[in-house]
Amino acid sequence: MSFYMKIGNIEFQGQPVFLAPMEDVTDIGFRMLCKRYGAAMVYTEFVNADAVIRNVNSTLKKIIINEDERPVGIQIYGRTVESMVEAAKVVAESKPDLIDINFGCPVKKVASKGAGAGLLQNIPLLLEITREVVKAVDIPVTVKTRLGWDNEHKIIVDLAEQLQDCGIQALTIHGRTRSQMYTGDADWTLIGKVKENPRMNIPIIGNGDVTTPQQCKDMFDRYGVDAVMIGRATFGQPWIFSHINDYLKYGSTKTEFSVHDKIEILKELLMININRIDELRGILHTRRHLAATPLFKGIPNFRETKITMLRSETHQDLVSILDRINGILNQEKPLEDI
């Protein structure tokens, strides 16, 4: 069990829990909230190397970071050595604490073009990209990837050694193959084998299907990973990090969040997004969290209210609905915390 680890000069105490990089989710507002509630490390949405090089404004906005969210990593993806090296140099100017290379995104628009998890079908190129990016920048470079392309090609144990030899300073492994996408169960056994490999001396970060504090502790205890990365379970509940950290330290949840507290956090996220973009697009950007949050599960006859909430197009209307839901929930028995 690890109680101290380093990625480059970044030091982590205890059993650190990271926020996974996720497209259209880990914008600066959500990262800041997750950091506030205990995320040990956060990552930007992944950015396309070609778009970075072309100075696409929407992409460059994604790599703006705030001093209060450190340590923070910027994740990049691409399919050529030249574009990834050039993008890494541009990204480094934003002064992230590290650059993470995405070799794990399974979606067709990325993988089918030979980027993300698509590079698991071209290991020589994957390794060359990694080596050259490490050489190109003066900050730590890390990698996030999967077990392999499909069930017949689970290559992560050997690949981890090869990536370490390229000079990366940490490796995150999602416990699925590309062909699984996000279906089935994440398999942590191979993540554990990578960690057990005596040749490995860089931190190993496990990712996949961790949705509760108990599961997070189990992954640390069973597989000996240096950190756990949480992805989809954070949707609509940035406070999950507080619950997990409490459980890892004390074996129970010390910090309680009332229904009112949680709705106020969601309202704050909404306001952050509106101020960052504009009213309508800020609302649209927040809908993913409102649709996914477990806070609203189990409310009787909630379907029509949920539809109305997710169709709201003004801040006033949406806040009014959230306040009404708050009233409903406070009349019922408190929902169980995650």
Describe the structure.
The protein has helices spanning 28-36, 49-53, 57-62, 81-92, 108-111, 123-136, 156-165, 189-196, 213-223, 240-250, 259-276, 279-292, 303-311, 315-331; strands at residues 4-7, 10-13, 17-19, 42-43, 47-48, 72-77, 98-103, 141-146, 171-174, 204-207, 227-230. 45% of the residues are buried. The chain is globular and about 60 Å long. By secondary structure, it is of the alpha/beta class. It is 44% helix and 13% strand. Strands 3, 4, 5, 6, 7, 8, 9, 10 and 11 form a 9-stranded parallel beta sheet that branches. A two-stranded antiparallel ribbon has the order 1-2.
Short description, anyone?
This protein has 338 residues and is α/β, with parallel strands linked by helices.
> What is the 3D shape?
globular
- Average predicted local confidence, pLDDT: 91
Number of helices: 14
Helix content: 40-55%
Radius of gyration, CA atoms, in whole angstroms: 20 Å
Strand composition percent: 5-15%
Unreliably modeled segments? 333-338
- Helix-and-strand structural type: alpha/beta
What structural keywords apply?
alpha/beta, 338 residues, 9-stranded parallel sheet, two-stranded antiparallel sheet, disordered C terminus, 11 strands, globular, single chain
Write the layout of secondary structure elements.
Elements: E1 4-7, E2 10-13, E3 17-19, H1 28-36, E4 42-43, E5 47-48, H2 49-53, H3 57-62, E6 72-77, H4 81-92, E7 98-103, H5 108-111, H6 123-136, E8 141-146, H7 156-165, E9 171-174, H8 189-196, E10 204-207, H9 213-223, E11 227-230, H10 240-250, H11 259-276, H12 279-292, H13 303-311, H14 315-331
Parallel strand pairs: 3-11, 4-6, 5-6, 6-7, 7-8, 8-9, 9-10, 10-11
Antiparallel strand pairs: 1-2
